[in-house]
Amino acid sequence: MSAASRAKRFNGDAEVTVFERGSVISYGACGLPYVLGGAVDDWDSLIARTPEQMRGRGISVRLRHEVTGVDAGARTITVHDRDKGQTTQEPYDKLLIATGVSAIRPDWAQTELAGVHVLRTIPDGQAIEKSMRGAKRVCIVGGGYIGLELAENLCRQGLTVTMVERGPEIAGRTLDHPYQVQVRQEVERHSVEVRCNTNVTGLTGKGGRVTGVETDGGIIRADVVIVAVGVKPNVELLRAAGARLGKTGAASVNVRQETSVEGIYAAGDNCESIHRVTRRKVHIPLGLTANRMGRIAGVNMAGGDAKFPGVVGTGIFKVFGLGVARTGLTQTEAEGLGLDAVSVDVKSTDHAGYYADAQPIDVRLTAEKGTGRLLGAQLICPNHQSVKRVDVIAAHLHGRGKADDLFQMDLAYAPPFSGVWDVLLVAADKLMREV
Amino acid sequence: MSAASRAKRFNGDAEVTVFERGSVISYGACGLPYVLGGAVDDWDSLIARTPEQMRGRGISVRLRHEVTGVDAGARTITVHDRDKGQTTQEPYDKLLIATGVSAIRPDWAQTELAGVHVLRTIPDGQAIEKSMRGAKRVCIVGGGYIGLELAENLCRQGLTVTMVERGPEIAGRTLDHPYQVQVRQEVERHSVEVRCNTNVTGLTGKGGRVTGVETDGGIIRADVVIVAVGVKPNVELLRAAGARLGKTGAASVNVRQETSVEGIYAAGDNCESIHRVTRRKVHIPLGLTANRMGRIAGVNMAGGDAKFPGVVGTGIFKVFGLGVARTGLTQTEAEGLGLDAVSVDVKSTDHAGYYADAQPIDVRLTAEKGTGRLLGAQLICPNHQSVKRVDVIAAHLHGRGKADDLFQMDLAYAPPFSGVWDVLLVAADKLMREV
């Protein structure tokens, strides 16, 4: 919908039509766990723009219309009207494939049993909400962002939560080990049972409803099972159109969001992007990136010239009483890429140490040895908002700055906001001596 | 003390002696209002390093020793021991003059009456605390950072506060008019009476104690009067040494914190610094700047080579339920410097709009027309911590970045932290279309 809006705004004469398989457009997917937990009032609150609003802008929106094929030569798509059961061919001049990602359902999760869910869409969320009624035990499979946010929000509703993670720690792909441990401890402190190094092998059920999760560590009883093991890009249409996919499995696009097929664009969670720190193609499907790509595609499709700037790998989440943020590369990631990286860890307080509500904040900064180039940061703080200062590091990574440049910055100080030396400066100071 | 610590750390053989006129070293002056209000437990909490700790590092600290003269030719200083009443000459190889600033006391405030105060040091704070006992009405003269922080903290203690400001609005020197108005409204909402365009002409007293403030708008009754009309650099010793002062009246130093006199350094609130946005000399005495200058002077005095990077004019304060931040230049300041500046105003929310604790946040971004160079930002939000994102703009100003570079940034998003488009991105987007 970002693309549609931008295209129409850029060129008022453009005829813009949106085909949506489901019944909902333009919703805040990142808010889904919070409706379940009560921090967001209702599902409708997540709707950013209704079909009526879009139509008011002169954009045609066809709900429950699934695009099932693309003929790039003839510049037509095949559209299936799910209500009328009719299939038609529709012409296009420029086509955007913004099919996003789907939640992965491993073989064991391909089940008819009630009470087994993924969380990707509003209907998914509504189904979980319904399943939760009368339920006592929830098993969340997967310890990434979504699993962690779900754990918090379902605990808030009084459910007993077990989290199963295949890897040795939760939050494994986004943080270095000491930070993973802090996240696990926080989750455990809130009575979530965390089972790492555990593989799910199947489900148990009774009367058509799930009763447990079979693992290589035994059966975990559960009235509700949520599968949060990751996402995969929806690339069927891209394949049908003959568009190239990248090594990550997502759509390969240039900075204008053009695919390898003339006239066909891709934008959003189904696309790769360029990582500005590593200069490699990555697939990191997140809200801001998707929105930004959409806007850029829209402008270009309408005759403009906009370019996607790349990402620096910024991510942030709240889990119970902790804010956790990262940007750039972790030490583990940097080493995995063959970089000669060094990290420093700093413990400080988010506000002046003597100020009433000061909380401990941990920062890890990572830089390249020799060059001193900053590579990344990780932050953890019980005052969750305080880790939003990760944005300062993200800004610095955009400019490919060094640790000592970071240390030079005139950051804001007053006791209710930080120490005289903001923890980022403290960490940069320490890092300067290591690179 | 930053200089002393750094010098000793850089060169363990250096003989470092600190002469302090008063009885306290190394305290967090910015925390003074918060001890009065109760957000900081006690005065001792503000002490960062004690003389004993410094001595433990091999630094000699002589309290109640006032340096009264400098002979730059002979490389000696005249030191007056205030307890013994003795005056001696002490030799130096390198001399740092870190005499800071004093609170300005206009003629009418040069009084013998009890209950009239400034707030600059811990003894000042302790005197105010004593005056507050049994007091009901406080008059704060001056509507800058300190006056505003005092207003909040004294209100918290149940005192009735009147604020007198000579100019047309409070927070006048740091913010553009719409932001000044928001600050005044917030202060008034908390029952502080604000009298702008009001000049103080004298004081009234009875039995040796102040009873009111005489103004050109009538007498304001007060049991306690706090004068917070600004500070002036303490430059007597610099003058005595023959060191050059800048146009601002503060010490003129180079990036190594060297004065115009060989072997004599200056650092801290008594110094000018370079503003990276305007490339002009400014005198903006703030905690981080002072600390940073001290470290740099210390390294250089001990034989190293460190350079002060300049400031970008970042400031932040909390007043009642508002966080207020600024960096770079305001529209008013930019125009005053003859720049062709344009500002945009954006209202958004600090967290995702649908998230439970989202608060409105206002951002003004200012850029140079034609070049698109970002000049500054102002932020206001009832969730005071949310304005700390001013640091992202400060980081961007360090790199002399443009509005469109800011818009490109991969900033952190999850509903408890921001909207998908962080308000800074929203503002940059709007600004791009104006420059």
Automatic annotation (TrEMBL), chains A, B:
Matching Pfam families: Pyr_redox_2, Pyr_redox_dim
The Pyridine nucleotide-disulphide oxidoreductase dimerisation domain, residue ranges: 318-420
UniProt KW keywords: FAD, Flavoprotein, Oxidoreductase, Redox-active center
Gene3D superfamilies to which the protein is assigned, alphabetical: FAD/NAD(P)-binding domain (3.50.50.60)
Domain FAD/NAD(P)-binding: start-end pairs: 1-275
Cofactor section: FAD
Family affiliation: Belongs to the class-III pyridine nucleotide-disulfide oxidoreductase family.
Protein name listed in UniProt: FAD-dependent oxidoreductase
